[in-house]
Write a structure and sequence with these properties.
transferase; about 475 residues; two-stranded antiparallel sheet; mainly alpha; 2 domains; transmembrane; about 70% helix
Length: about 475
């Protein structure tokens, strides 16, 4: 089941809310969330519910062992088992085929490459339960005594299948005792509608334009062979905007849904395109993932010592690999790691002295080139992309096809640029500073929400398949 679906919006969610709020019992409310979360997850692939349940059970047991023997060898064994189980589960489903494929390429063995379907959300809930066990071992959180409460945390449908990666420490108190206020309901529904608009009104439109420029994946993105230099750059920019609105749209809906049930998830995207350095970009882009690798991987001792650049290499190698079993994702991660290392060598003070226009040009060129690496999963296609960027495909600087596509989608492009910037929050901030204007802004916000919901719903009427991009990961 997906969020951007009329069945979810107008049946599943209302029924869930009614069942949740019809009782005041915290235990019953938790059971309601568990049942609806498992239904949500099992809607398309019921077979994978068992893996989710076992994953929750394993790390619940690991947490209890750590609680009982915090200083003993049993705690170390529990931590080791959590690492082996979660990473082994992830490797088995996500990377086995990739590993065999590359083993064949290196050794010529000719082994059959297994075609293993990836359980939806496994990259997210594996990291959540793993972070819980590590935090229990480090003494950062108290292990959960109730398996039902822990299962609710793992299976919570707002963030189950595509994040954000919600750490146990963030909502531990709310698992035990939470309340949903009028403010939570108001801001929750507003956030859901915002995310829905990002996905349906902007991201889906951008994806169509990208396909018209680069061609279909199954045809090897053949259109890039004849694309002009400006057309290729325009396509790369659109890919970046598309991914932003799709990824952040899902996170907005997840955060909004959490608010309805009294949970306050951390922000996952914070207007990343306003960044002035690549380091700042990653402090604003997919925050839950980048902070996970920072806190749990960066300072791992390598060959017995904490190595600054070795840890950085490992973080960005894993960040790329986490996104998919393909070399382009590994290159994408190391590509960003290279620029972050360069910025570390230059130093924060010197980076801040860079003229603002130059800083924005530098970051945007790096970012949109990065999205090109992310988009083209096959290496021959990626090579064609880089050739087209500088005209080595033998085509012109600009062409009429690109110009027509640009003019035909100019309002979508402008809207994407505007809403990727923190313009609305700035206007809201100024409005609330002036007496009387807050009411006008709130009224305008209600009208805008209604219009976005109506427009999104109308576009979803004939759209039966509307998955978010992070479902792939």
């Amino acid at each position: 089941m997906v969020f951007a679906d009329l069945f979810f919006l107008y049946f599943f969610l209302p029924v869930c809310l009614i069942c949740y709020f019809i009782t005041r019992s915290a235990t019953v409310r938790n059971l309601v969330l568990i049942v609806f979360s498992l239904i949500f997850y099992a809607w398309g692939e019921p077979i994978w519910v068992g893996i989710l349940f076992v994953s929750a059970l394993v790390d619940y047991a690991n947490g209890r062992i750590i609680a009982k023997h915090p200083e003993g060898f049993q705690a170390k064994l529990a931590l080791a088992f959590s690492l082996i189980f979660n990473l082994g589960l992830l490797f088995g489903f996500k990377y086995t085929g990739f590993f065999v494929e590359n083993l064949n390429a290196v050794t010529g063995l000719g082994l059959d490459v297994p075609k293993i379907r990836l359980p939806i959300g496994i990259s997210f809930y594996s990291f959540q339960t793993l972070s819980y066990t590590i935090d229990c071992y480090w003494g950062k959180v108290k292990p959960q005594k109730s398996f039902l409460k822990f299962l609710m945390y793992v299976s919570l449908f707002p963030q189950l299948v595509a994040g954000p990666i919600v750490r146990y420490s963030v909502i531990a108190d709310e698992i035990e005792d939470r309340k949903t206020t009028i403010k939570d309901v108001s801001e929750g529904f507003s956030r859901i509608i915002l995310g829905l608009g990002k996905k349906v009104l902007i991201a889906n439109g951008l994806s169509t334009v990208v396909t018209s420029l680069f061609g279909e994946a199954e045809n090897g993105y053949e259109a890039i062979n004849s694309l002009s230099v400006l057309g290729t750059w325009y396509g790369a920019i659109l890919v970046g905007l598309w991914y932003y609105f799709d990824f952040s749209g899902y996170s907005d809906i997840a955060i909004g849904l959490g608010r309805l049930f009294g949970f306050h998830f951390n922000e996952n995207f914070n207007y990343p395109f306003v960044c002035k350095t690549i380091s700042e970009f990653w402090q604003r882009w997919h925050i839950s993932l980048s902070s996970f690798f920072r806190d749990y991987v960066l300072y791992i001792p390598i060959f017995g010592k904490r190595r600054k650049y070795g840890g950085l290499f490992l973080v960005w190698f894993l960040t790329g690999l986490w996104h998919g079993a393909s070399w382009n994702f590994v290159f994408w991660g190391l590509y960003y790691g290279l620029f972050i290392m360069m910025e570390m060598l230059i130093g924060k003070k010197r980076m801040k002295k860079m003229p603002l226009p130059l800083a924005h040009v530098y970051t945007k060129v790096v970012i949109f080139l990065g999205f090109g690496i992310f988009y083209f999963e096959k290496l021959p296609q990626l090579v064609k992309f880089f050739k087209a960027l500088i005209g080595l495909n033998g085509n012109t600087f600009i062409d009429s096809y690109t110009a027509n596509i640009f003019m035909g989608n100019i309002f979508l492009f402008i809207a994407a640029i505007v809403f990727a910037m923190p313009i609305i929050p700035k206007i809201r901030e100024k409005a609330f500073e002036k007496p009387g204007s807050a009411y006008i802004f709130q009224s305008a916000g209600v009208i805008c929400n209604a219009l976005v919901l109506l427009a999104s719903s109308l576009l979803l009427v004939n759209n039966t398949n509307n998955p978010f991009l992070y479902f792939r990961f």
